[in-house]
Fold these 3 entries.
Entry 1:
Amino acid sequence: MKLKNASTLAALGVLGLMAQAAHADDSTVKVGAGVDYTSGKYGTSETTDITQVPVSLGYDTGDWSLKLVVPYIRVSGPADVIPGVGPVNNGNPNGRGKGHGKGQGSAGSTSTTADTTTGSASGLGDVIASATYSAYHNDANNFGIDLTGKVKFGTADEDKGLGTGKNDYTFAVDMYKGFGQWTLFGGVSYTSLGSSQYIKLDDVFGANVGASYKLDSQSTIGAYYDYREKASSTSFSRSELTGYYSYKFASQWKAQVYATKGFTDGSPDWGVGASVVYSF
């Protein structure tokens, strides 16, 4: 069985387990959808535009939170820019826009210049499954520590340049502390990035820090900064600042909009997105 098929079956298995667990009386199930758009040159002469439409299923019970995200993705730009990784040395002969058919997608086009080859492709993105455990929480002091394990299944087509085709594994530690209407948060992470015969990647450390402010019982604003080491000797570190606004417009509905600004060639120049979640 090919790795891609095995990854898809594993992701579907996680979805099945979450659906079964949702019958527990003390649980909360969350169903969400969104859209995310980023644009940037990533150190190349051409712009890469990435649109993702993720659908998510979450399950909270006790100190545990489980989540599965299944995205549709469309990428337009150089073959050496991979979603979630950034600019790399992509030796795949069927890479996006390299004129071998597989990299063009259902409505793709290609063009070649002296220093880069570009193209468009779309399809299933990388399915992500995560589990977060509330290792410590003190309600009186509004302080907590969360531990998260995450698997990015390599379900995106590497021949279309939609992903690396390999699984990634992440472990993260996050903390938060509340001060009235304010909450400060931050964390660190370690990710083992899967390498293929065409794309060689290193394991990376990451960090984030941010703050949120509760405007009222329904609205929250916030911002956070993300950093991650470069994934290879030919890529760049990621450095991004994101601001967001969250609004609970009904007892079971919550919406969020956000905007991102990148500061290095490992990040998009800018991005925007929105999501909505229904809990029951």
Entry 2:
Amino acid sequence: MTRILTAGLLLAMSSAAFAGSFAGTSAGASSAGTSASSGSTSGDDKIVRHARSDAASFVASDGRIRGARLEAALRHLRERDPAARRRSDMALARAILAQ
């Protein structure tokens, strides 16, 4: 399991350039929806932040391991941001890890 997580983290770091342009304020969530909190940790940010370990497992397993928190974060991001709707689950998971 440690080997899988390490591989996932390495993949995430290598995709930081890609995810950096997408991550924004909340891994791709629309700035209009999240900037109103002006730096405070909102429930929206928590959904994405709590999905990090699930995202690491998903990336490391090449999409075979899908946790409930990752599923919730993917749904949340796609509800908030039209650009996220066009991204694959893997791209969003990598963006979550790059935060």
Entry 3:
Amino acid sequence: MLVPIGAGTCLDVEDTGRGPVVVLVHGWPVTALHWRHVIPALTQSGYRAVAIEARGLGENSTGSGDLSKATLAGEVLAVLDALGIGRFAVVGHDWGGTIAVLMAAQQPGRVAAVVVEEDVPPGIEVEATESETYPTWHLPLFQAPEGVAERLLAGRHDATVDAYLDGSAGPSGLDFDAQFAYMGAYAGDDHLKTTLALYRAEQADAQAVRRATRRRLQVPGLAVAGRFGRGRQVAEALSRSVSRVHAVVAADAGHYPAEQAPDTVNRALIPFLRAA
């Protein structure tokens, strides 16, 4: 369902189950399909899973404006206000991890726990990744001076997404149907425009993250990583943001542990949430 939050902005929400709320925010270049193995585990364990598609990530949410992650965090919080949700835990993948950390910083009294999957927020310096497969070519490409990436990638965004998914998933790859769905979700030059805006906001994002984590947030954190993705970087980065960090690294996963190693992720996630 689309939840309006004003100024022409509506965020897509999948709201399932009853119990303590767990907010799920996916990253780029996936959709809420990323949570297909996590949501059933949460609802069967007595949680209410609220998957929210931040503006610019996925294919359904609407609205205009800057795509800084602080702005997106505020919009996700506004959706929770509209749904009458008070306290919650938040799980963020990729850019969703940065959004999750900024949500906890913006309204710390509401956030019971933060889970970051495969993200090192801008503004947090960590040692270079150990993975030889995790791609970095997209960063300079997407952050090229305005007009350069547009000319190179116009009409080719689905192929760009496909190449990134192939590289970032590691040796085990992604489910074919999921990868095909992600390519379709981000196809078209409108989605290319939002992708570039997401990455070109990195300087503002870094400033926001540095301000937010000047002092560690007093919430427990769980770092979820893939050995062929960001690996130990995720826990190192999260330890700079929150007071207590647990970590799990899925041995056979790349950038998408919740999809590639759901049993490993859920075995760590559910006990962590219960203890939070």
